[in-house]
Specification:
By secondary structure, this protein is mostly helical. It has 18 helices and two strands.
């Protein structure tokens, strides 16, 4: 195509499923990296916590920069492979390769006792890994070019389904394999436990292959001309009032969502004191509830629209989250409370997780209606800068809460912060509800 508005045709269910595949790989590698990296280098290889913390902080900065830059640059030039595929070809495999090197330094380093070299290794490969994870930005921007707005809720449901399949496999791997790896590494840092080697290599290969797969299987988007320079595109994006309001809405609610997703399983383990079998039951129920509610919320979006659906999600979260205070009562059987708690969390997260994938594609298309240019990359990439800051503050707030004094309920002793986070998140999402209702537009006239 040339200067005219990009035409999007209906796609098949198979194409929507294939497009969602990479989310399985990214969930596996990011989940294992998030769970294992600090413990591996701290307990396994004996690197000091300050060095590890600095390296990980640089990694977080690199992902914020990468998501913005890859989205921005992928708008700039149309190639024989289109706008997005070249970045998937380069950074998809690099994500898997950097994951392997990051988790398996003993594959290359001759002396694991050299902490200076070990620190440099961790710093370099975590920055590369996190920057490469930004491949998800041009990948996600691709949605606006491949799928019409009516299909995006289905695509988002499929992507999130693969997300949580990956998270489930990661959790199962953690419970069955990784809990014993760190002691083995500490006992002999120069020898990689074979089960750990197998898992890291297989997960790294999966994440790489799935990005390459969609490059070959998914069609290249038609060429839509973008005459604006990169700087002009960025200025247009920042001046889009509704877009910036949406980013702020995500930032405000991100305080709450980051706390919820970080602490929800810790609550079931520490406050409810569930055993291993009970913990697995609760985790399985959480995954099943996510899959069910992804579907139900997607149908709700199609029935009443995006904004009303999101407002319902916020209201349900506001009413439900104070349930964490029941951890102080001790009268309800822990497994029953755990099942009810985790099902409710699945209900609200299953709804919220649908929205980011949809909103940026829709807002980019809305901008296209007025400017004639589809700048999906910058619309997907720019919010990462703001959202990473808000989410980091949310996790920091959680750390402060967990530093509060302990209480004892029955046989369990835990920080009072592990029960008050629910009401605090409820208040945060109440603010998000009123802000969204008054200021944010999610449903556009052209969709009708």
């Amino acid at each position: 195509m040339s200067d005219t508005e990009l035409e999007r045709t209906e796609t098949t269910k198979g194409k929507r499923i294939i497009f969602g595949f990479p989310r399985l790989g990214t969930s596996l590698v990011l989940g294992i990296e998030g769970f294992a990296l600090f413990t591996l280098y701290y307990l396994g290889y004996g690197l000091d916590s300050i060095s590890i913390g600095f390296a990980l902080a640089m990694g977080y900065l690199s992902i914020a920069a990468g998501q913005f830059l890859l989205g921005w640059f992928s708008d700039a030039k149309y190639t024989k492979l289109g706008r997005r595929k070249p970045y998937l070809v380069i950074f998809g495999p690099l994500l898997g390769i950097s994951f392997i090197f990051l988790l398996l330094p003993a594959l290359v380093l001759p002396d694991m006792a050299d902490k200076n070299i070990l620190f440099i290794w961790l710093l370099i490969w975590d920055v590369i890994f996190r920057f490469s994870y930004a491949v998800t930005t041009p990948y996600q921007a691709w949605m606006a070019e491949l799928f019409p707005t009516s299909e995006r809720p289905k695509v988002s449901q499929t992507q999130n389904t693969f997300n949580f399949i990956g998270n489930g496999l990661m959790a199962l791997t953690t419970l069955l394999v990784l809990t014993g790896v760190f002691e083995k590494v500490a006992a002999n840092p120069n020898v990689i436990p074979p089960e750990f080697l197998l898992i890291v290599v297989v997960f790294g290969i999966i994440s790489s292959i799935l990005f390459i797969l969609i490059v070959f299987v998914m069609p290249t988007e038609p060429n839509h001309t973008i005459e604006s320079s990169l700087w002009e595109s960025l200025k247009t994006t920042v001046k889009n009032n509704n877009f910036m309001k949406i980013v702020l809405m995500q930032g405000i609610s991100g305080f709450g969502w980051s706390i919820i997703s970080t602490v929800m399983l810790t609550y079931t383990e520490d406050v409810l004191a569930l055993g291993t079998t009970e913990y697995i039951i609760v985790a399985v129920i959480f995954l099943l509830s996510i899959f069910v509610f992804l579907y139900l919320w997607r149908k709700q979006i199609e029935r009443i629209g995006k904004k009303k659906t999101l407002l319902y999600i916020f209201l349900i979260a506001v009413v439900f989250l104070p349930i964490t205070l029941l951890g102080l009562v001790g009268a309800i059987p822990n497994l029953i409370l755990g099942i009810f708690f985790i099902t409710g969390i699945g209900l609200i997260l299953g709804g919220w997780y649908l929205f980011p994938y949809i909103m940026y594609a829709d807002i980019a298309e809305d901008d296209e209606k007025s400017t004639g240019e589809l700048k999906a990359g910058v619309y997907v990439g720019f919010p990462s800068i703001v959202l990473n800051i808000f989410q980091a503050i949310g996790v920091f707030l959680l750390g402060l809460m967990l530093g509060l004094p302990d209480v004892t309920v029955g046989t369990s002793t835990f920080s009072i912060g592990l029960v008050i986070w629910g009401p605090i998140c409820s208040l945060i999402l109440l603010v998000s509800y009123f802000y969204t209702r008054k200021f944010v537009e999610l449903d556009f006239e052209w969709e009708k």
